[in-house]
C-alpha cells in the first residue's frame, strides 16, 4: 500500500480525529492555535482509493534569518503505527516537510512500550537499590514496541533520550501515570485508591471543601495560585495569556475539550486544575495549590472530582501526565509520584520522541544550542 500526503483543512482533520476512540490533545487542530510561536499545519494521509486514513498536526518553527523550519508533531502523527509498511507512512511525510524547507523533524509516536502497576512502583520506591523506573522489571510489556523502535532506527530516526536529572526529555514526557477506567465501575475505581487517598477525600468533605467548575473569568485566580505553585516547586510558569488562549480555542472546538476546576474552603481558593478531554482519554493538564490549609486535603478532593467527571464523560482512562523516572529519595518530584501512585493506576512508558535530521548541519547546530540553554 502506498500513501499520498498533503495538507488538509481543519474541518477534515477534526472530522477524522473525532471519529477515532482517542488521539492526543496535542494532535487536534485547535492545539496549533495554542502555540502562537509556531505555524501549525494539518497533514493528511490518503490511501490509493483517496480515503483519508491518517492525520498529523505539525508545528513549524522558523530559524531566524534562514527561512528554514523545525517541524514538531507532539504525540503524533495519528497513523497505523503497527502497520508492516511503516516506511510507506513516514517517508511521504519527510518528503513533504523537506519541500517546506524543514531541516529537522521531531515526532512522538503514541506507542506504549511498558507498564508498571501501582504495587510495582511502590515497591521500587521502597527499594534502596532501585534508582530509575526504566531499570525496574515491568508488570507488562507491549510486544510490538521494540519492533517499531528498530524500524525507526533503520529508517534513520534518532531517539531523544530522557536524560535530565528527573528523567524528562525536552519535549513531552516519556513516563506518565494513568488510571484505567474501561470495564470498571466508578465504585471499583474508588476502591482501588489507597487508604490515604480515601481518608483524605473524606477529610476534605468533612472540612467543607467545595469543588466547582470555573469559567474564563476564573483563569486569573487560577493563574495567581499557579504562579505561587511555580515559585514553591521550582518551575517556570506559563503566562496568563497562554491559559486564556487555551480556553478560547480548545472550547471553541469542543465545549468539553478543556475544563477548569477550583477547590474552595471557607471562601478561599486552595487548589485548582485544568482537565483536557479528547474521545475516551482525559488528562490532568495544569495544577496549582496553596501552601496553607493543606490539612483539609483540597488536592485529593479536586482530583477525585475530576476523575469522577471524566468517568461520567465516558473516559476510558484518566491521565496524570508526566512522572519522574528517578526513584531516589532526594528527588524533589518523588512526592508527586507517590501522590499519583496512591490512585492505584499504572505507570506507563511511551516510545519517546524521535528526531530525523533533514539537514545534518542545521540539526547538529540546533542540538548544540539546546544543550547550552
TrEMBL record:
InterPro entries: Acyl_CoA_acyltransferase, FEMABX, PG_Glycine_Bridge_Synth
Single GO term (MF): aminoacyltransferase activity
Pfam family, one: FemAB
Stretches of the chain forming a coiled coil according to its record: none
Protein's recorded name: Peptidoglycan bridge formation glycyltransferase FemA/FemB family protein
GO biological processes: cell wall organization; peptidoglycan biosynthetic process; regulation of cell shape
Record flagged with keyword Cell wall biogenesis/degradation: yes
Family stated for the protein in its record: Belongs to the FemABX family.
